[in-house]
Amino acid sequence: MIDCKNSVRGRYIINAAGPWVDELRSVNNSRKGKQLFITMGIHLVVPAKKLPVRHSMYFEIPDERMIFLIPRDQITYIGTTDTPYNGNKDELRITKEDAEYLLKAVNSMFPDIDLEIKDVESSWAGLRPLIYEEGKSASEISRKDEIFISSSGLVSMAGGKLTGYRIMAKKVVDRIARDIARKTKTRFSKCRTLLIPLSGNKLSGYGDVRAYTEQVSASLSEWKIPLKYASYLVHNYGQQTDIILNRLSKNAGNDPELRLIISELEFCLEQEMVSRPLDFIERRTGRLYFWINTVEQYYDEILKVFKEKFKWSSTQLNKEKDVVQKALLFSKNFV
User: Fold this and answer.
1) What confidence tens digit (pLDDT) does each residue in 17-34 have?
2) Do the domain assignments include residue 7?
3) Which of 143, 187, 261, 274 is deepest in the core (most CB within 10 A)?
4) Segments forming the whole domain that contains residue 288
5) pLDDT tier, 1 (very low <50, low <70, confident <90, very high otherwise)
């Protein structure tokens, strides 16, 4: 068992650990029956000028797999592979072979594009926690999600796809609610999270989003900040972008982009539970993938804000710097 100084107890514990689901089932001594089959998918980021698609695309390649292209601000990203994975789940490395496979797939569809490895600005990989099916290849295994409940109350969710995370969450909560209701004769109201608006989003449709983005562009122009950040801010923060813009005057300096990134970081530290540099540059903003040049240029300034906020020692600062530099290395290089 895991040795913890503080224990948290509950009638049910939800295990939504993705590729690590079976590890927790092992700790719980309930890893029986169905097991996970882990596959890896990679994504490559190239400049929009090298792959200038205006809309998302999904097409079949010669080996009958499907590939997608998605435009996002000043880049286009390409996905994805689907290969069995048995390596270190904490340090995913993309092979040059997999990267060249995707580039070749795009080139076969657009012969005049001629993408090369040198065109890749950034990349990332993810793991799929599929449920093993004997005799099936990685791409043939169903993406259907399933729930496993142990006798101790560990509720494990496996399979599924990231795009269906809300439906999967509802399934788990509804399942537990039914079990509790049956055992305790308690009645619960229906799940209503679908009706709760996300914070900062009072925009009712595309027209509102476009009008608000134009307002943001006007504000950025006043600060001489590149207008390309308008859609980035609105897509990431909705109308809470106003809070970030209001901070610009508090962050002095001659570099407009640095002023913006620090204002954005301060908002995330105070209101979005960001506590590590990777929380900000990767998980919250995607800058590590879609705006990697800003991470390379400003990570020292970003780290300084964290050092002051959390009173880091020089040792801790250097440790976090190593983490950021390693993330940059993995994102820009293949093995």
Assistant:
1) 999 999 999 999 999 888
2) no
3) 261
4) 206-332
5) very low
Residue that terminates a domain, selected from 131, 154, 179? 131
Question: What torsion do the CA atoms of 76, 102, 37, 130 make, to the nearest 10 degrees?
Answer: 40
Cα–Cα nearest to 157, from 149, 173, 146: 146
Is pTM beyond 0.85? Reply is yes
Would you state the torsion angle of the CA atoms of residues 50, 324, 127, 165, taken in this order, to the nearest 10 degrees?
-90
Query: Distance between CA 157 and CA 146 in Å, rounded?
Result: 6
Number of domains in the chain: 3
The burial class, CB within 10 Å (0-12 / 13-18 / 19+), for 307 is middle
Count of residues in the chain: 335
Q: Is residue 298 part of a domain?
A: yes
Q: 199: pLDDT confidence band, cut at 50, 70 and 90?
A: confident
- If we measure between CA atoms, which residue out of 266, 226, 231 comes closest to residue 246? 266
> Which tokens sit at 81?
């592979």
Pairing of strands 122-131, 83-84: unpaired
Q: Do 18 and 165 have their domain in common?
A: yes
Residue 283 has pLDDT above 80, yes or no: yes
